[in-house]
Design a protein that fits this description.
It is built from two helices and no strands. It is an all-alpha fold. It has a domain of about 30 residues.
């Protein structure tokens, strides 16, 4: 019995060679065209985000002064077992 060969690997099959791909050269003006354009300032968006940030900080301060700040000076008396 003959050993089975892999498909396409017969005795008369040509050997596969790895072809090298040619190096890609960049166009001389490609670096000039790829320069990014700066973003335009958006004053309304900036003002809106600053208002939202100020409200957020205000809410955090309000929560701090209503919960943590009043309890910072409270000292509980020690428990006595005199009874």
């Amino acid at each position: 019995m003959k050993p089975s060969a892999a498909p396409g690997a017969g005795a008369g099959a040509p050997a596969r060679t790895k072809k090298k791909s040619p190096k890609r050269e960049h166009a001389p003006g490609a670096a000039e065209q790829a320069a990014p354009q700066p973003l335009k300032p958006r004053r309304k968006l900036f003002a809106g985000l600053m208002i939202v940030f100020a409200l957020w900080v205000g809410v955090l301060l309000a929560m701090y002064f209503t919960t943590v700040f009043p309890a910072r000076g409270v000292v509980e008396p020690p428990a006595s077992n005199a009874n």
